[in-house]
Amino acid sequence: MSSAALPVIPLPYPLLLLPTARLTIPVSSAAGELLLDLVQEAEAPPVVAAVPVPSTEAPTLHEWGSAARIVRVVRPPRSLARDTQRPYLLTVHGLARIHLPEAHNSREKIDVLAERIVEYPNADGTASVEATATFKAAAIKLLDRLARDAPNDSKRDFYVKLSNMVDEVTTQRAPWLADMLVASLNSEYADKLDFLSAVGPDDRLKRATAIFIKQTSISEVSKKIAQSIDESLSKQQKEFFLRQQLAAIQRELRNLNRAPPRAGSPAPPESKGVSAPPSELDDEDQAEQEEMADIRTKIEAMAKSSEERKMAVREWRRLKRTPATSVEHGVIRNYLEWLTAVPWPASARAAQTGASLAALHNRSFLANARAQLDADHYGLDKIKKRLIEYLAVVRLKGLQAERESQLEVEKTAQLEAKTDIQEKADEQSKALVRVKSTSTPVPKPLVRKSVKGPILLFVGPPGTGKTSLGQSIARALDRPFQRISLGGVRDEGEIRGHRRTYVASGPGNIVQALRKAGRPDPVILLDEIDKISQGNFHGDPAAALLEVLDPEQNHSFHDHYINVPVDLSQVLFICTSNTLETIAAPLLDRCEVVHLSGYTYSEKMHIARRFLLPKQLQANCLTADHLSLDDSVLTHIATHYTREAGVRSLERAIGAVVRYKAVEWAEYCDSIGADPNVPYPDVSAQQGDASPRYRPAVEEHELETILGIARWDEDELDREERRGLVYGLVVTGMGEGGVLPVETIMVPGSGKLKLTGSLGDVIKESGELALSWVKRHAYDLYITKTRAQDPLKNPDPVDVHLHLPSGAVRKDGPSAGVAMTCAFVSLLTGACVPSNIAMTGEVTLRGRVGAVGGIKEKVLGAHRAQISKVILPWANRKDVEHDVPKEVRAAIQIVFVRTVEEALEAAFGKGVVGWRRSDVLVESRL
Ligand SMILES: Nc1ncnc2c1ncn2[C@@H]1O[C@H](COP(=O)(O)OP(=O)(O)OP(=O)(O)O)[C@@H](O)[C@H]1O
């Protein structure tokens, strides 16, 4: 054992330095300065005695301490140096245990850096294998536990590394590792102090082992305590939550029991003083209760043991179980609101349908329906006839269904009566009878059976009254009317709804329409079914519509949101569409097509006078006295400002005229100080001769000021008579008829045909066919001199270019054959077709002119375009006879042709195009 005199650094409780450890402590400025001097003077880092002072009451140095090397002395920044409170910082590194023999005896004051004699006990040597093994086991156990409970990855890694070190330590290094572990693993002060006095290797290992075992058990216990605290906390939370709910329930009950104050009774204390008027915003709880009560009543009104009732009851129970503040509560409630708002056919609300049954029972039902249709629409005789037939069938089916339901109810009642008799007669078999009686069907309310009828599909150009016909049908049947616009519907969910799992899910537009109608038997108009998109990644809306429209399936229509089969069999569906081409075949198959093909000018005049003008006058708060429009003015508007099959633009133009007059009238009244609401004749009686006068009549020349420059004049001027130019007749995608120029020119080339204008395969083929026919008959038409010559190569080689304008619009079909043939003949002969002639018809290679579709639309379109002669296939005579109004037939010359030769004669005029008579086309008879 050696000894030495070392300056002492007392370590106040709870500081302690073990060999191998490092410690930073604050020291006073005086001690700091001394230490700095010491460091500066010494050559090697000076060694001090870091000795703990365990007691604060009787501060004496401990018997054991550590010899420590000074690592660093830090002086506080200069500006703060005057601040005496601010200490110097001393960092020391523990080297070895030291013993202070006179520590206990010294009663003197502990001076910092006073020198003391210290002894270095002999701590070298190797530990025994047993002591090392137990030390290792205890240390590893503790370190593993600490690693398991480590709050983060870096801590865990630290403990794992230490554990590995312990695992590999030798008996020689074990005491050193024991020092290190005890210093770094938050051991208790007393334990560390005790450990500091252990010198021998085995002794150090044993005491360290004891400390580790103690720490392990402490950590186990503290974990258990933490767990139990956690549990008790969550219990507290639960209790808190339940108490909140209890408070809410008690509040509800209080509201429920709060009786309305009787007259004369003292007002409640809070309403004393200035009483604010009651606001519906304050009555949140009450409104909530009322809504819930409403849902409940509706569920109770649902037919017993029906699917919808079962679902509603199930959801109601779930709603009651779910906390009112949760998201799920809102979702369930929303669902219940929808479910109870659907007019279920079998529910008590179906009694409302009695109203429409009364309409069906009415003996003058058909006469009323006819009157209704006539009152709402002008003309459309054939369509009205078809609708009356339809309504008659709907009525018969409705009455028949009612009779059947009645019989069913009677039968059930009889069955019940029989069961009663049986019950009384056979007392002993009571139990058995009861079983039977429960299995007999419950008497159902008078439920109307499904009324399966054809589904009408109105096809026609825009503004021809398809939607308003649907409304008239609903009025005639005394049923609510709902319109669902399908234009642009891409997602099946829009028809079928979205499942409840979706955010912001809701039912589809069929169920929405039913809810709005409030009855299970409305008339639902599916508008623009041609614009619905078919099969894409959002599902197939057209397929969903099939289920809606199919009478075999629609008694159990599945809406994803409602999730209970909805019976649509009593709904009358009517569809509208502009064209049949884009409607899916299966959908079309379920509909009965009714064509509406546009109005003639005279029909438009009548519609304008009887319907559109009164409607616009009413909408703009004027009367017939304020505005008069002559027939000539109306015709001018229709011919120069609108060119459409329907009457929508006409209505818009009339609306503009009415609004113009409304402004004039208001200004006039203001100028003479009259009330604008006084009828015009009374005001005109007041007006003096000197005052400016108001003129109700609108003159033709004023239209340009009101509506702007006429739209269609230019087009008419554009139509010209030219070589190679012929006018054909077309039906557009919107179902409107019109005139389309067929333009051809010759360009230098090699006898080829070029076709442009966004043409489909069929129209391209008919172009080639027309040219072949002309080439074949070039000699007959005096285009070439011999039969063998090709008119496109002789005298000069040329190409023929045929173009149909409006290149962006796709065109197809064979009906331009005649017009193309005439255009080629005109181009090659130089003869022109007059611009007031338009034509349509399919051409065969043999030179026959075949029938085409859309004759009515085409002829009406030609009439609107002021064409005076149309050339049509002979086979379409019946269409003209049946469909084209008489006044149009009277206004236009219609020439029916069987062959191309006849068509050429009608187009160019008799004898204009030559024809070698000797060689008349001989038809082959196959
Ligand atoms: N024959 C008619 N008699 C009286 N009014 C008519 C007639 N035809 C159309 N109308 C009126 O024309 C307007 C447009 O009609 P509606 O909306 O029914 O056209 P639509 O065929 O449904 O058009 P879209 O295809 O664009 O939906 C309505 O105000 C309607 O009352």
UniProtKB/TrEMBL annotation:
Pfam families: AAA, Lon_C, Lon_lid, LON_substr_bdg
Gene Ontology MF terms: ATP binding; ATP hydrolysis activity; ATP-dependent peptidase activity; serine-type endopeptidase activity
Record has Hydrolase as a keyword: yes
GO biological process, one term: protein catabolic process
Active-site residue list: S815, K858
Enzyme Commission number, as recorded: 3.4.21.-
Enzyme class: hydrolase
Regions of compositional bias (Acidic residues) in chain numbering: 280-290
Binding-site residues for ATP, renumbered to this chain: G460, P461, P462, G463, T464, G465, K466, T467
Region Disordered, residue ranges: 255-290
Ranges that cross the membrane: none
Record's keyword terms, sorted: ATP-binding, Hydrolase, Nucleotide-binding, Peroxisome, Protease, Serine protease
Residues covered by the Lon proteolytic domain: 720-910
PANTHER family cross-referenced by the UniProt entry: ATP DEPENDENT LON PROTEASE FAMILY MEMBER
Protein family: Belongs to the peptidase S16 family.
Name the UniProt record assigns to this protein: Lon protease homolog
Upper taxonomic lineage: Eukaryota, Fungi, Dikarya, Basidiomycota, Agaricomycotina
